[in-house]
């Protein structure tokens, strides 16, 4: 099988003639960087973050706040364009921001061995500082990767990058679950949390080193003045405002219940960390299998139709969570496959849409505003969810062998809001989009093209396939 570097130059937009080998190397670095960073994200987020909050004595309201902090921190992204203009480089702001955001977690380890009333407060403060620094780094990272990855292969490339990331999700969740269960059994839970935090921070540092090896892409953005008026300019873009409204509403629908699925598994379903990790791994594996499929569909019909299709399907997920009990968990195996398949498509489409609908010269500002506005929706909803869970703490209704608690009310509200927002998404239009019936027709064709999972893990195959379709 010949190498890309031995083939004629690619002539697709965004691919410099004669630079396909360099681009291949850059795409591989981005994939590995994402995979290593994801180990940190998994071990310090999701169910592990919720369980750590419970370990520090967090109430339902404080658990809701824990889920809200990363999203209120997204307001810090408004600082990113100014910092990029000040330094003249996205690379410095992005790499240093991620290093500070992730290495600050080392400060939590001593806290795990101290018994004090202020532990939870310090934990929340460290969480907030970490989130703020990560958010400052994010807009530069997004515009950086958007400049490197050619538009015509973004769907397939990000699908395969997401598949590689999902592999580390499987490994990290199962490893983290086994570690925490082991140390919980020997009554050394603080050692377990210390170990997974340390592992996460080490892989985060490796990720930052890899990211630092990438050159600045060809954007002129860092030389454009970033006054406050420039930062809020995306709000004057009517088309982009419509996109903001959609994702704001969607984040409200998701945020009101998101953090409480893990709390429900730990408190009410009495699942061990290992069992929770297996569930998360099953979701990730389902996503791995579907990522290439969704990438093909997005490249052919656009992101909007995929977003609509997946959003309607995702609307039913909270209702499924009315079914499992502590002695009836097998239904979660089916739910994991369903959830992974739909969320992989939704996330891929949702990642592409703000990039595709923002002008290259102002992309950092557009993406910063997008994250801030949508993040505020998630923050408000997550905080409200925590408040409602606290108010409904004593709620309990038994129907046969089932007992429905406060979390189930949040799941119901979330399901209704997701369903309503899905209709809202239909009204948004983007250039070149194909209708939902056309997408469904193409999905049948794409399903026949879905082959081995292993091929999804190598980004250079995207370039090779694209070259074969464009050479001549």
CATH class: Mainly Alpha
CATH homologous superfamily grouping: MFS general substrate transporter like domains
Low-confidence stretches: 1-18, 220-225, 451-459
Average pLDDT metric:
83
Number of domains: 1
SSE run: HHHHHHHHHHHHHHHHHEEHHH
**How many runs of DSSP E, i.e. beta strands?**
2
| Sequence of strands across the biggest β-sheet | 1-2
Count of alpha/pi helices: 20
Report the β-strand fraction as a percent range.
under 5%
CATH architecture: Up-down Bundle
Describe the overall structure.
By secondary structure, the protein is mainly alpha-helical. The chain has a single domain (17-214, 236-452), classed as MFS general substrate transporter like domains (Growth Hormone, Chain: A, Up-down Bundle), CATH 1.20.1250. It is built from 20 helices and 2 strands. It has helices at residues 20-43, 46-55, 60-72, 80-87, 90-103, 108-111, 119-148, 154-185, 189-212, 228-231, 238-255, 258-267, 273-301, 303-314, 317-320, 331-356, 363-391, 406-426, 436-449, 460-470, and strands spanning 396-399, 402-405. It has a two-stranded antiparallel ribbon with strand order 1-2. A hairpin with a 2-residue loop joins β1 (396-399) and β2 (402-405). α3 packs parallel to α7 (119-148), α14 packs antiparallel against α16 (331-356) and α14 packs antiparallel against α18. It starts with 19 loop residues before the first helix and ends with a helix. Residues 1-18, 220-225 and 451-459 have low confidence and may be disordered.
């Amino acid at each position: 099988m010949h190498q890309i570097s031995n083939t004629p130059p690619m002539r697709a937009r965004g691919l410099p003639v004669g630079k396909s080998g360099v681009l291949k190397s850059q795409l591989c670095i981005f994939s590995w960087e994402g995979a290593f960073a994801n180990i940190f994200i998994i071990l310090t987020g999701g169910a592990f973050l919720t369980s750590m909050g419970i370990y520090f004595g967090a109430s339902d309201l404080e658990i809701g706040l824990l889920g809200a902090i990363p999203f209120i921190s997204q307001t810090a992204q408004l600082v990113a364009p100014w910092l990029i203009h000040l330094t003249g480089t996205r690379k410095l702001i992005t790499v240093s921001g991620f290093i500070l955001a992730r290495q600050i977690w080392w400060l939590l380890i001593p806290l795990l061995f101290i018994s004090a009333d202020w532990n939870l407060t310090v934990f929340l403060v460290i969480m907030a500082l970490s989130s703020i620094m990560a958010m400052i780094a994010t807009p530069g990272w997004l515009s950086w990767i958007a400049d490197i990855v050619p538009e015509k292969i973004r769907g397939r490339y990000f699908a395969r990058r997401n598949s590689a990331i999902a592999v580390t999700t499987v490994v990290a969740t199962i490893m983290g679950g086994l570690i925490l269960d082991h140390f919980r059994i020997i009554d050394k839970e603080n050692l377990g949390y210390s170990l997974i935090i340390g592992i996460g921070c080490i892989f985060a540092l490796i990720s930052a080193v890899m990211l630092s090896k990438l050159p600045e892409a060809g954007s002129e953005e860092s030389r454009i003045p970033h006054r406050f008026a420039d930062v809020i300019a995306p709000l004057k873009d009517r088309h982009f405002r419509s996109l903001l409204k959609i994702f704001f509403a969607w984040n409200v629908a998701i945020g009101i219940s998101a953090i409480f699925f893990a709390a429900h598994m730990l408190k009410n379903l009495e699942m061990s960390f290992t069992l929770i990790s297996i569930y998360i791994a099953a979701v990730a594996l389902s996503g791995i299998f579907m990522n290439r499929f969704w990438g093909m569909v997005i490249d052919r019909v656009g992101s909007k139709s995929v977003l609509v299709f997946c959003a309607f399907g995702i609307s039913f997920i909270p209702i499924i969570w009315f079914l499992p009990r502590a002695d009836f968990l097998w239904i979660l195996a089916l739910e994991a496959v369903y959830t992974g398949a739909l969320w992989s498509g939704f996330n891929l489409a949702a990642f592409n849409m703000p990039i595709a609908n923002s002008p290259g010269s102002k992309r950092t500002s557009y993406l910063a505003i997008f994250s801030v506005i949508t993040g505020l929706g998630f923050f408000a909803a997550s905080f409200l969810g925590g408040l409602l869970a606290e108010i409904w703490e004593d709620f309990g209704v038994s129907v046969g062998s089932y007992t429905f608690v406060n979390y189930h009310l949040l799941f119901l509200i979330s399901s209704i809001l997701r369903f309503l927002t899905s209709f809202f998404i239909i009204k948004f239009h983007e250039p070149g989009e194909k209708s939902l019936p056309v997408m469904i027709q193409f999905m049948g064709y794409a399903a026949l093209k879905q082959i081995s999972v292993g091929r999804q893990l190598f980004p250079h195959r995207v370039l090779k396939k694209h070259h074969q379709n464009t050479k001549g």
